[in-house]
C-alpha cells in the first residue's frame, strides 16, 4: 500500500518528465528548493497544499489532476488513461516519445 505522499510524488515526477523538465528547472519555476522537490517526488516528504499548488501551477496541470482518484490502495498506475500514458512515457527520451506519438497519430487516422 502506497502513502499519499508517494502517489502525489510519483504523479509530479511523471508530469515533470513528460514536459522534459529537470528537477532543478521545475523547482525554480515553483520557487522551491530542488532538493525538496526530489524528496517530494520520492515520497520522503509530505508537502503542504500550498507547495503542491505551486508545483501544479509550474507544470500547468490542474491541482485536481494531482489528487484525482487518490486512493491508499495499491495504485501502480493512475486510473485515468491519459495519466497512465503519461506515466509510461515519462521514462522514455524525447525520440522514443516522438515515435510513440507517431504511432498514436497513425492509429487514430485508421479509426476514421
SSE diagram, text form:
Layout: H1 4-18, H2 23-30, H3 34-41, H4 49-59, H5 63-67, H6 81-89, H7 94-111
Walk me through what this model shows.
The structure is a single chain. By secondary structure, this protein is an all-alpha fold. It has one domain: Orthogonal Bundle (434 Repressor (Amino-terminal Domain)). Helices cover 66% and strands 0% of the residues. It contains seven helices and no strands. The longest helix has 18 residues.
Features of the shown structure:
434 Repressor (Amino-terminal Domain); 7 helices; 66% helix; mainly alpha; elongated; 112 residues
Structural class: mainly alpha
Task: Provide the helix percentage.
Answer: 55-70%
- Apparent shape: elongated
What name does CATH use for the topology? 434 Repressor (Amino-terminal Domain)
Q: What share of the residues does DSSP label as strand, in percent?
A: under 5%
Number of domains: 1
Total helical elements:
7
Mean pLDDT: 84
Main sheet?
Answer: none
Q: Give the total of beta strands.
A: 0
H-E order? HHHHHHH
Report the radius of gyration as a whole number of Å: 15 Å
Which architecture would the CATH scheme give at its second level?
Orthogonal Bundle
Q: What's the name of the CATH homologous superfamily? A: lambda repressor-like DNA-binding domains
First-to-last CA distance: 42 Å
Main CATH class: Mainly Alpha
As residue ranges, the low-confidence spans are none
Amino acid at each position: 500500500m502506497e502513502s499519499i505522499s508517494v502517489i502525489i510524488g510519483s504523479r509530479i515526477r511523471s508530469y515533470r518528465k513528460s514536459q522534459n523538465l529537470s528537477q532543478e528547472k521545475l523547482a525554480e519555476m515553483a520557487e522551491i528548493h530542488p532538493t525538496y522537490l526530489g524528496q517530494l517526488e520520492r515520497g520522503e516528504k509530505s508537502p503542504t497544499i500550498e507547495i503542491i499548488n505551486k508545483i501544479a501551477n509550474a507544470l500547468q496541470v490542474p491541482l485536481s489532476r494531482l489528487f484525482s482518484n487518490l486512493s491508499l490502495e495499491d495504485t501502480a498506475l493512475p486510473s485515468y488513461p491519459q495519466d497512465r500514458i503519461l506515466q509510461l512515457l515519462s521514462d522514455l527520451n524525447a525520440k522514443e516519445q516522438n515515435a510513440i506519438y507517431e504511432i498514436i497519430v497513425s492509429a487514430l487516422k485508421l479509426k476514421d
